[in-house]
Specification:
Length: 216
């Protein structure tokens, strides 16, 4: 008897993936469908990839950051029909922060501008739950280590009897899997550097003039 396939939907926290696995590597031109096809077992039939992020603006000393992100998001859209991108937003506001080991005579507290990416965690939780209600998958694969998503996973597992895969970005030695997420996971995976290197988009994207940014 042939093995039954699991309809599998992948939910990616884009900034968690970037800062956990991709920052300061040459592998940012990442082919997400190849990555998860290699990472998951053969019984997983990937039906959809949902990518959650926020559009970045020009940064001090790196005015082309938003152009690199724009090129990558466009490359994903053109090359991977199964992907859908959902956007949060950035929020910047002044906060008072305590200085680490201030020198004598220096203030112990200073005002700084704190920039946060807002909305993606809520968006991910809503999509995982709504898709479970609509029975769009047998297995939800979450790419994040944000413990705020634990309650959504609990509902999916207990109320809808769905399988849950947890993909934790980052090196296991330095970034432990969230215990709150892990207790709801059917399985846990890590993304190796070797797998990243084997899962790169073509350059350029076929049929387009979309190229990998030169500084990546």
């Amino acid at each position: 008897m042939p093995q039954q396939l699991d309809r599998t939907a992948v939910y990616i926290d884009g900034f968690n993936l970037y800062y956990g696995s991709l920052r300061k590597t040459p592998y940012k031109w990442l082919d997400l469908i190849t990555l998860f096809t290699k990472l998951l077992e053969h019984q997983h039939q990937i039906t959809e990839i949902k990518y959650f992020t926020a559009r970045i603006s020009s940064r001090d000393g790196d005015q082309s950051a938003h152009q690199r992100q724009k090129a990558y998001l466009l490359a994903l859209e053109k090359y991977i029909p199964k992907i859908h991108t959902y956007y949060g937003h950035y929020l910047s506001h002044p906060v008072t922060a305590k200085v680490y080991m201030p020198l004598p005579g220096q203030p112990k507290y200073i005002k700084v501008i704190k920039t946060e990416e807002k909305g993606s965690d809520v968006n991910i939780a809503l999509h995982i739950l709504n898709d479970a209600w609509q029975n769009k998958y047998d297995c939800a694969v979450l790419v994040s280590n944000d413990s705020d998503l634990a309650e959504a996973l609990r509902f999916v597992k207990e109320d809808h009897n769905k399988k849950i895969g947890l993909v934790v970005p980052g090196n296991e030695k330095y970034r432990k899997a969230s215990s709150e997420l892990s207790k709801h996971a059917t399985f846990i995976r890590r993304i190796s550097k070797k797998l990243l290197s084997e899962s790169q988009l073509p350059n350029p994207i076929p049929g387009t003039n979309i190229y990998k940014p030169a500084t990546w």
